[in-house]
């Protein structure tokens, strides 16, 4: 069961199924009609998000998820230490949509299975479909969460 209330001890998601439906409808994405399937996609997206490094610190050491956070500034404004940024909710929804097609957190990193190799003047290599277990890359992710997440070729500059 999804619990999107950060004040609940069972808090386990930033986005609700309704958030996912609104996000998908507004952008023309197709998602399952079953709420349970949508919930599973959102949990897969949460697993991906919880693997990231975030700016600031958790608001409470006992909170189950990385957000809400303190010490996060975006565009010169301190973000409230008790809120989940809408951009984070949207990112979870977008990842849930991606999870319909790919495994967001593959358990085995490595190459794909080669099914054929031939050398005759030029090299031909054929790979087994669906065997690439490398971590997925989402070009939109770091730009959508700019200022919230650490990474994506971002550097922190502070005046001492």
Describe the secondary-structure layout.
Elements: H1 17-27, H2 35-50, E1 53-54, E2 57-58, E3 69-70, E4 73-74, E5 77-78, H3 86-98, E6 114-120, E7 122-127, H4 139-144, E8 149-150
Antiparallel strand pairs: 1-8, 2-3, 4-5, 6-7
Helix pairs in contact: 1-3, 2-3
Organism: Enterobacter soli
Domain Putative DnaT-like: 7-160
InterPro entries: DnaT_2
Low-confidence stretches: none
How much helix is in the residues? 25-40%
Radius of gyration: 19 Å
Largest sheet: 2 strands, antiparallel
**What pattern of helices and strands is seen along the backbone?**
HHEEEEEHEEHE
How much of the sequence lies in strands comes to 15-25%
Output mean pLDDT: 87
Distance between the termini: 46 Å
Count of helical stretches: 4
Shape: globular
Kindly describe this structure.
The model has no long low-confidence stretch (mean pLDDT 87). The N and C termini lie far apart (46 Å). The chain has helices spanning 17-27, 35-50, 86-98, 139-144, and strands spanning 53-54, 57-58, 69-70, 73-74, 77-78, 114-120, 122-127, 149-150. Helices cover 29% and strands 16% of the residues. α1 (17-27) packs across α3 (86-98) and α2 packs across α3 (86-98). β6 and β7 form a beta hairpin. It has four helices and eight strands. The protein has a domain at 17-107 and 133-150. The radius of gyration is 19 Å and the shape is globular. The longest helix is centred in the first third of the chain and has 16 residues, at 35-50. By secondary structure, the protein is α+β, with helices and mostly antiparallel strands. A two-stranded antiparallel sheet has the order 1-8. The chain has a two-stranded antiparallel sheet with strand order 2-3. InterPro entries: DnaT_2 (IPR046787). It comes from Enterobacter soli. Residues 7-160 form the Putative DnaT-like domain. This is Putative DnaT-like domain-containing protein.
